[in-house]
UniProtKB/TrEMBL annotation:
One term under GO cellular component: cytosol
Entry keyword set: DNA-binding, Transcription, Transcription regulation
Domain Cyclic nucleotide-binding: 18-139
Residue ranges occupied by any HTH crp-type domain in the UniProt entry: 153-217
Upper taxonomic lineage: Bacteria, Bacillati, Bacillota, Bacilli, Lactobacillales
Organism: Weissella oryzae (strain DSM 25784 / JCM 18191 / LMG 30913 / SG25)
GO molecular function, one term: DNA binding
Pfam families noted in UniProt: cNMP_binding, HTH_Crp_2
Protein name, entry field: CRP/FNR family transcriptional regulator
Classification via PANTHER family: CRP FAMILY TRANSCRIPTIONAL REGULATORY PROTEIN, REGULATORY PROTEIN YEIL
Amino acid sequence: MLNHPVSGYHNCLKKVPLFAGLNVEELTLITTIVQQREYLKGNLIMQPEQEANLKILEAGTAKMFSITNTGELQFIRQMRTGDYAGEDSILKSSATADDFYIEALKPCRICYIRQADFKALLEKTPSLALRMLELYAQKMQKAQQHISYLSLTNIEKRVAQYLLDQGLTEFVLTMKLQDLAAYLGTQPETLSRKLKYFADMGWLNRHGKQISLKNRSGMAAYYDLIAYN
């Protein structure tokens, strides 16, 4: 793994919504505290008890997961270029990372900012602090949505509500089938069967990851769910 400072404007900063809208002076300030590290496929990019850092995926693909009390892997999300993690850990008083793991699925290049450096940066950059609060609120909303899916005991309801929540008649699934299954708390085979069942019911057409909802209101009514527009 390589570890070296980054000078000048760095591509990773331009890809992250967290830094969108910052002026030249603020971006210049950020680049002074950014460092870079490279990971091979299978390397752990982040794990519990590590030093708290904000990590930005500049290149590559990774997965975020946790380990349950029974030792099972619980998929959280897939990370792609521009995604970031660790904003929770660098804002809290603890000097260690959150209780999740990030594993490189292919060679990855990571930009990272240490907790102490980032806190000092927020004090100097009020606009960045406000941007962090805005994105943190969005993240909490998504987390609450995930919890709402898992609270549905019927797996068909979970899948149906997830599809309805996309808010579109036609869309592309952004996650691989196995990742989406883990996100919804089921197995890929079960998810495939449910999607086929929905197609047999005339509610949707599916071509790979392309989904076309033919009868959103019918699906919602059948499971007593809300179809958001």
